[in-house]
Write a structure and sequence with these properties.
Layout: E1 9-18, E2 21-31, E3 36-40, H1 47-54, E4 62-67, H2 72-75, E5 79-82, H3 96-101, H4 105-108, H5 116-128, H6 144-158, E6 162-166, H7 174-189, E7 193-197, H8 201-207, E8 210-215, E9 217-223, H9 224-227, H10 230-237, H11 244-252
Parallel strand pairs: 3-7, 3-8, 5-6, 6-7
Antiparallel strand pairs: 1-2, 1-4, 8-9
């Protein structure tokens, strides 16, 4: 169910604390539909906690979160999630195709097993991320970049309206980064909302059309060309940022310039 006109993700007056230590404070956020959205901020800014709060994985100290105007528990099937690769036990004895098939479980329910249709969807997702030849390989035998693409394929099988991705570009090779970006752009073209935690300021302007700058609070949010400014970055990173001039140069550069 969707409330008419409701945004994909809306966060109001949200605070999250671990014990007595606030991690996110008075967060207000409204994310638009059909955009490729970057969440950017320094280490410890609460970026992963924000994603986990949206997914209902951490309790809120105050405030609320709505997915298309409803609590997450009522919209669970409309949200796909790609976790950090480091948070996964890659020694679990399962092959690539089985991992990707897990993305279909939400639609099947508890008592149905994936059938021919679901296997075809899983293979199509693997082809989309250039991993179909690895379908029957054990996941522990894959490189880090290949493992990241497996989880992206699993999320694609969910056929969600919203995708939340926790640093999918972290520690991957250039070919994997290009493959992931291509898939994210295809999702956007299909009208999906894609929310990505990202750490590389030098690629923000090229990758995202909407940006959230976060450091415990939302410093700025909106179209990338208006949010990605030297002043906003200084407010977000403080004295820890040494790339301001380089980022400002990238933002000012004309498309296609080297």
């Amino acid at each position: 169910m969707t409330e008419a006109g409701a945004p994909p993700i809306e966060v109001h007056d949200m605070t999250v604390a671990y014990g007595d230590k606030p991690v996110l404070w008075d967060v207000d956020l409204t994310l638009p539909e059909g955009k490729l959205i970057g969440i950017v901020g320094p280490n410890g800014a609460g970026k992963s906690t924000l994603i986990k709060a949206i997914l209902g994985l951490v309790p809120l100290s105050s405030g609320w979160i709505k997915i298309y105007g409803q609590p997450y528990r009522k919209q669970r099937g409309r949200v796909g999630y790609v976790p950090q690769r480091e948070s996964v036990d890659w020694d679990f004895p399962v092959d690539v195709l089985d991992v990707v098939l897990m993305g279909t479980y939400g639609r099947l329910g508890w008592f149905r097993r994936p059938g021919r249709r679901e296997r075809a969807q899983a293979r199509a997702a693997l082809k989309q991320v250039d991993l179909l030849p690895f379908a029957h390989r054990q996941i522990r035998q894959l490189s880090g970049g290949q493992q990241q693409r497996v989880f992206l394929a699993r999320a694609l099988c969910q056929d969600a309206q919203i995708y939340l991705m926790d640093e999918p570009f972290a520690s991957v090779d250039a070919a994997t980064e290009r493959a992931i970006l291509r898939v994210l752009q295809q999702l956007r073209e299909r009208g999906r909302t894609v929310v990505v935690i990202h750490h590389d300021l030098q690629t923000v302007a090229q990758y995202f059309d909407w940006l959230v700058l976060l450091n415990m609070r939302v410093i700025a949010q909106g179209p990338t060309e208006t949010v990605l400014t030297e002043d906003n970055l200084a407010r977000t990173y403080g004295g820890r940022l040494n790339l301001l001039s380089r980022v400002a140069e990238l933002v000012a550069r004309e498309p296609g310039e080297e």
